[in-house]
Amino acid sequence: MGGEVHYDIEDHPDLQDSAWTRRATRRARREIRGQRRRAFLRGHSGKIITAVALVAVGATVAGLYRAGTFDDVSMPDVDLPYSGVNVEQPFAGTPAEHWSDGERGIVLPSTDPAFEQVRQALVAARIDPVTISEHKPDKFLAALAPQARDHYSQEFEKWVTRLKPGTKLLPNGIRVSGKMTLGESNGHQAVTTDYVFAYAFEPPDPKKLFDQMEIVAAVRTKVTYEVTPEGLWPVESSGFQYSIACQASKDGFLAPQFTEPAKHLDGLDDDEAHFSVDGPVPTDGNCE
Question: Which segments cross the bilayer (predicted)?
Answer without folding.
Answer: 46-65
